[in-house]
Design brief:
mainly alpha, 2 strands, elongated
């Protein structure tokens, strides 16, 4: 999965926040309003970014009258996971990269990793 540009990321943050809040999928107008305090963007720019994100597979869209409603295709965590896996694929030595990563995280993050590994090892084989 490719990374997002700065504006794409900003738009995705609005869509992810709406989904996490249980709000209906966003129209371009919803996104424009949400970004109005942060950025001075033309409505057509927001429409273009949403369209591109849908074409790239980051957003699903459905018709609602004359407008489109957009929702994230994957969670923020899913996106970040794909970025991390992509970065690992770029290394010549995944094991070394993982070991270096683990040495650089906080104790709280180590606890989260331990818990996740423990849960995985307790799962019955698929």
């Amino acid at each position: 999965m490719k990374g997002l540009g700065e504006l794409e990321r900003t738009v995705m943050e609005v869509c992810w926040a709406r989904e996490e809040a249980g709000v209906v999928p966003a129209t371009a107008r919803d996104v424009s309003r949400a970004l109005a305090d942060q950025r001075d963007l033309a409505h057509t720019t927001v429409m273009t970014v949403l369209d591109r994100l849908a074409k790239k597979g980051f957003l699903d869209r459905e018709r609602d009258g004359r407008a489109w409603r957009y929702r994230p295709s994957a969670s923020r965590e899913g996106y970040v996971t794909e970025l991390m896996l992509g970065a690992l694929n770029e290394t010549g030595d995944r094991d070394a990269a993982l070991a270096h990563f683990v040495r650089s995280v906080s104790q709280d993050e180590i606890d989260v990793l331990r818990q996740a590994l423990e849960e995985i090892t307790l799962e019955p084989p698929a």
